[in-house]
């Protein structure tokens, strides 16, 4: 029987590459996405299309983090920045990765999966505190104290295969695995068809990744 | 200005006592509850009644953990046990406290609250792994690595004032603070009016608490 894994899948280029990597590593994958009040919820359409095409089980969980606000991604009163910022950017969503990993842990425990994959990246990480290795290690320890499985000695592992990759590394890895990046949505303010603005932080990082990788940028831009 | 705190409030006797303690300690309290697919969602009516009467801000977040199942509390195909079990009981909801604390952390970061109160109890804890002090410590460490506030040195603290109390201690503390336990819902299968079954694990622990405290049990039972 295949080992099971829960894959946090936003529908962006990192998490789609992550899913391809986990499949390549032989995991039976269960993809988890969130409708959390994000501006760019069209990313969920991308996520659904990709899991359908691969025959991967996919759950989209509703959890409205815009009830709290505090981020340009969930509060329409805060504009998405169009220039790279110093420090932690306005697009940081408070405790988002902790929340997503916790819910992934809940599903993993029920599935008896012991692997959770998250596409965090500490190189091009834009200053998000919850993308750092020390956060991931602390969460993994917490997960194993929190759960029946952890207590019984059958421990969870949080897999972060992209954590030390540049965006260019991720793109080159994805190309080897046959990922079609035109189908992924990275832009923080993508339109309803999944076309990217081309100017937000996320678009700038993505563009630079294709340039650095020397690959054609197949992103669909609205301008 | 008062210090702010996020209080995880189920509407049961422990969390209602917790709220009374946090108010007594001078915190400006923000109560957080979850409609998570629990059988006994009537507890939310109790929570709302209590926060309204105290003028405390209260958010109820929808997060359907029954999408995953795996617990007698969220899966109607699994009966609620009526005899105390050995080990971790069927009413354990996978990773529930990790999920609830994570979402409390998200709200706390936006509110600029640095205190999060949770009514876990390691004495009468029924074998739940996520009620143990080592879990709480690990979560607190994770919270401070996950967030902007933690990085900037203004650290979060997870408060667990009930952790070493017996149910009787909790009841005596609540009586001193004027808590009306007839308004709280503990039962895992309470009816729509909040009346308790009197036979589930949670009811048995509650009954014993009143006996040990030598107090009149004001719980409303359906039989």
Notes on the protein architecture:
The structure is a homodimer of 223-residue chains. The first copy, chain A, is α/β, with parallel strands linked by helices and 223 residues long. Chain A has a single domain (4-181), classed as Rossmann fold (3-Layer(aba) Sandwich). Helices cover 36% and strands 11% of the residues of chain A. Chain A is built from seven helices and five strands. Chain A has helices at residues 13-24, 43-54, 96-111, 133-146, 148-151, 167-176, 201-213, and strands at 4-8, 28-35, 57-62, 115-117, 157-159. A five-stranded parallel β-sheet of chain A has the order 3-2-1-4-5, sandwiched between helices. In chain A, strand 2 (28-35), helix 2 (43-54) and strand 3 (57-62) form a beta-alpha-beta unit. In chain A, helix 1 crosses helix 6 and helix 6 crosses helix 7 (201-213). The longest helix of chain A is centred in the middle third of the chain and has 16 residues, at 96-111. The termini of chain A are far apart. The A-B interface holds A 59, 61-65, 67-70, 88, 92-99, 101-103, 105-107, 109-110, 129-130, 132, 134-135, 138-139, 141-143, 145-148, 150-151 and B 59, 61-65, 67-70, 88, 92-99, 101-103, 105-107, 109-110, 129-130, 132, 134-135, 138-139, 141-143, 145-148, 150-151.
């Amino acid at each position: 029987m295949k080992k099971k894994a829960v894959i946090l899948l936003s529908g962006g280029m990192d998490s789609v590459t992550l899913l391809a990597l986990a499949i390549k590593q032989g995991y039976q994958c269960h993809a988890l996405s969130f409708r959390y009040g994000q501006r760019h919820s069209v990313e969920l359409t991308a996520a659904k299309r990709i899991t359908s095409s691969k025959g991967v089980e996919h759950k989209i969980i509703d959890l409205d983090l815009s009830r709290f606000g505090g981020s340009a991604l969930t509060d329409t009163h805060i504009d998405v920045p169009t220039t790279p910022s110093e420090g932690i950017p306005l697009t940081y969503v408070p405790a988002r990765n902790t929340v997503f990993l916790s819910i992934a842990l809940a599903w993993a425990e029920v599935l008896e999966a012991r692997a959770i994959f998250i596409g965090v990246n500490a190189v091009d990480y834009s200053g998000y505190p919850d993308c750092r290795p020390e956060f991931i290690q602390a969460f993994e320890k917490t997960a194993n104290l929190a759960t029946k499985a952890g207590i019984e000695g059958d421990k969870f592992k949080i897999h972060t295969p992209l954590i030390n990759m540049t965006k260019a590394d991720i793109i080159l890895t994805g190309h080897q695995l046959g990922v079609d990046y035109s189908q992924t949505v990275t832009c923080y303010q993508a339109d309803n068809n999944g076309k990217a603005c081309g100017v937000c932080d996320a678009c700038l990082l993505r563009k630079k990744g294709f340039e650095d990788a020397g690959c054609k940028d197949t992103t669909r831009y609205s301008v």
